[in-house]
Amino acid sequence: MKLVKYIFICIIFICSSSFAENLSGFLTWKKNFKKTALQNNISEKTFDTAMANVKFLPNVIKYDRYQPEFYEDTKTYISKRTSSKKVSKGVNFYNKNFNLINVIEDQYGIEKELLLALMGIETNFGTYVGKMDILSSLATLSFDERRSEFFTNELLILLRLIENNQIDYKTLYGSWAGAFGYFQFMPSTMKNYAIDFDKNNYIDLKNNKDAYASAANYLNKIGWNDDQPCFYKIDLSTTVPKKYLNVSAKKLHNKNKLKYFRKYIVNNDVLDKKFDNLAASIITPDKDIIPDAENLSPAYLVFDNYEIILKWNRSLRFSLAVCTLKKKFENEL
Question: How far apart are CA 331 and CA 333, in angstroms?
Answer without folding.
Answer: 6
